[in-house]
Amino acid sequence: MIKTLLSSVREYKKESILAPIYVTLESILEIVIPTIMAFLIDNGINKRDMSYVIIMGLVLVLAAAVSLITGILAGRSAAVASAGFARNLRHDMFYNVQNFSFSNIDKFSTASIITRLTTDVNNVQNAFQMLVRLAVRAPMMIVFALVFSFRIDARLSLIFLATIPVLGLGTYLIMSRVHPIFVRVFRTYDKLNNIVQENLHGIRVVKSYIREDFEEKKFADVSQTIFNDFTVAEKRLAFTMPLMQLCLYGSMLLLSWFGAREIIASGNNAVIGLSTGELTSLITYAMQILMSLMMLSMVFVMIIISRASAERIVEVITEESDLKNPENPVTSVPNGSVTFENVTFSYARQTDKPVLDDITFSIASGQTVGIIGGTGSSKSSLVQLIPRLYDPVSGIVTVGGTDVKEYDLEALRKEVAMVLQKNVLFSGTIKENLRWGNENATDEEIIRACQLAQADGFIREFPDGYDTHIEQGGSNVSGGQRQRLCIARALLGRPKILILDDSTSAVDTKTDSLIRQAFRENIPNTTKIIIAQRVSSVQDADKIIVLDDGRINAIGTHEQLLETCAIYREVYESQNKGGTLHE
């Protein structure tokens, strides 16, 4: 895990190295300052040598100034290094997510990925900043302070050593009981984000059914769970401060008691015992050691919090896509023919009931094929195997006579355009959205694609025409307009296979008919696969596939299916004579 995380430091290695160096210099100077003070007290103030006091005072000021400068530089370097590290972590996660298959995304969920990109990265960023500063400073201060303390008085310095095991054991016990809570908290954050995302996405439905109170209760329940877990964790972490103060003030009392006795016994003579200046230095070193231990405890707390976040980040970075290019991929698709040979598919690999079961059919290049079936008959699942958004559990899917697994993914998907059931537009102008299909498309090509999709007419009615701004998700256009824009976007790529997954459900039957007529007349060589709920959308197709519960019930033309397929005939009659729709 650590190796994976550190690989994201990259161009910020310089700052990550400079920060500990500056911290080391700062620590050395802070350790030297108490010794300088001891010299100033014993050899200057006690002997009333003002010239010595002035010289050592200037040295003290210079050491403090240099310590301040190195501290500022250390803080700046640590801030730059941690911010850059977080930036690279987000980049690496987002970049890898782009390579995920749909099954990989299903595994993590959208809400979880967002939490990992935001909250988890912030936690790791804070921990990294503390590590390159405090995690270096604290141990060095402890070691240097102990060395200087033992040089002054080894017996009194044993007081420091006695506190270290107490602090270490106490901190370990706190860590071991808090880490599992934070692991649970960040999983709950995923659930919280999912509730917010779902609520905002379906806010119109929520308001239509007056379910605001229900949604508020869902949010409040999850929020209360996070509050309760954090409260328990913080209560346990709160024991660190009393533990530190116990060790700190206990050490100070013992030092003052035994140190004062030694000063009296030696007559304040450093040669035969302990002097006032040396006791002052010992007390300062005690403060530095115990404050450094407190810093370490803060680092440990941050590590406890960030450890769970780091594990979640590494899971995303190291996740490998289920779909990979072969060693020598095929980079061109010769035509739009499609075949399914005994294909079985399931979203969960281990399941007793597959989503698609023993699917076999073939489509010649340039044919128009309709797919119809009841809700849950796996129509969308079937067509998602063609551009290899998922891989079948068994069987073979071929495009242009070649197994889709042998194609370069980018080359295959350029030739297989899908207009998904959930139409998505992005914030930007209409032109910018359409150029997702072909970033180099000319204005003439854009207009031509929109004419085929029956979108040119309503676009020209907008005051800004093709430069009209589209809100996120296409919220400022109607469902039918959004569908036609998505069809035009797919056509711009000039694919060999065009898949419309219930993509004309929001347009009227006349417009639907005009779109199909335009396809027949203008893109006859493109294979067109149309998933529809309306029989009228597929009845003029070269063949129609009827799906029922993940299996093919029948294949044929409209006329053939009316005679031989009870399911198709029932759907047709329900839509034309007011019968009951087949479930």
Automatic annotation (TrEMBL):
InterPro entries: AAA+_ATPase (IPR003593), ABC1_TM_dom (IPR011527), ABC1_TM_sf (IPR036640), ABC_transporter-like_ATP-bd (IPR003439), ABC_transporter-like_CS (IPR017871), P-loop_NTPase (IPR027417), Type_1_exporter (IPR039421)
Domain called ABC transporter: residue spans: 338-574
Membrane-crossing segments per the record: 21-41, 53-74, 134-152, 158-175, 246-265, 285-305
GO cellular component: plasma membrane
Main localization of the protein described in the UniProt heading: membrane
Topology in membrane: Multi-pass membrane protein
Subcellular locations according to the entry: Cell membrane
Keyword field contains Metal-binding: no
All copies of domain ABC transmembrane type-1, residue ranges: 17-303
Keyword set, alphabetical order: ATP-binding, Cell membrane, Membrane, Nucleotide-binding, Transmembrane, Transmembrane helix, Transport
Top-level taxon in the UniProt lineage: Bacteria
CDD domains for the chain: ABC_6TM_Tm287_like (cd18548)
Protein's name according to its UniProt entry: ABC transporter ATP-binding protein
Lineage of the species this protein comes from: Bacteria, Bacillati, Bacillota, Clostridia, Eubacteriales
